[in-house]
Amino acid sequence: MTVPAQPPATPDLLYSQDEEDLRSAVRALLADRADAPTVIAATEADTPYDPRLWEALATGIGAAGLLVPEKLGGQGASHREAAVVLEELGRSVAPAPYLTSSVVATETLLALAGDGGPAAALLVELASGARTAVLAVPFATPPTGVAAALATLDGTVRGIADAAAADVLLVPTAEGLYAVEATAPGAAVEPLVPLDLTRPLATLTLSGATGTLLAVPEASATAVRRGLLAGAGLLASEQLGIAEWCLTETVRYTRERHQFNRPVGSFQALKHRMAQLWLEVVSARAAARNAADALATGSPDAPLAVAVAQAYCSGVAVHAAEECVQLHGGIGMTWEHPAHLYLKRAKADSTAYGSAGSHREAVAELVELPAP
Question: What span, in angstroms and rounded, lies between the C-alpha atoms of 10 and 25?
Answer without folding.
Answer: 29
